Amino acid sequence: QVQLVESGGGLVQPGGSLRLSCAASGSILRFYFMGWYRQAPGKQRDMVAGILSDGSTNCADSVKGRFTISRDNAKNTVYLQMNSLNAEDTAVYYCKARTYAGDYWGQGTQVTVSS
Fold first, then answer.
1. Is 63 exposed, middle or buried (0-12, 13-18, 19+ CB in 10 A)?
2. How do residues 58-76 score in pLDDT, each as one tens digit?
3. DSSP letter string over 40-93?
4. Which end of the chain lies in a sparser environment, N or C, as judged by fewer CB atoms within 10 Å?
5. Angstrom distance (rounded) from CA 114 to CA 96
6. What is the DSSP letter of 108?
7. φ, ψ for residue 61 (rounded to 5)?
8. 96-114: average pLDDT
């Protein structure tokens, strides 16, 4: 059974930074893809950034240059470093892991950008 636990969300002022963590139960090497998604109230859940098992990454245009996804295989954790946050980044952020058997989601962590 796969469990993903996100942490690191909270309230931050515009222009500030946060680092989200997604800790997996067991090795993340079994996932060929891991990603961060976000969902604001009344909106659909969209991908923010993703990382493949070979380390290659991609991210949404709206966060390019501000957000960085990375992984630490030894700690079974994926991170999302978020800089220059603005109000439009306010959302619940979810971690997703994909195997050939299916997708797994974490419970989400709230990020609120407000002064």
1. buried
2. 999 999 999 999 999 999 9
3. -TTS--EEEEEEETTS-EEE-GGGTTTEEEEEEGGGTEEEEEE-S--GGG-EEE
4. N
5. 26
6. -
7. -55, -35
8. 96
Residue 35 CA to residue 94 CA, distance in Å, equals: 8
Q: Give the chain's length.
A: 115
Per-residue confidence band for 115, with pLDDT thresholds at 50, 70 and 90: very high
Residue pointed to by tokens 């195997």: 99
Q: How high is the pLDDT of residue 6?
A: 97
Three-state secondary structure of 6-41: EECCEEECCCCCEEEEEEECCCHHHCCEEEEEEECC
d(CA 2, CA 103): 10
**pLDDT, position 49:** 98
CA gap 39, 25 in Å, rounded: 24
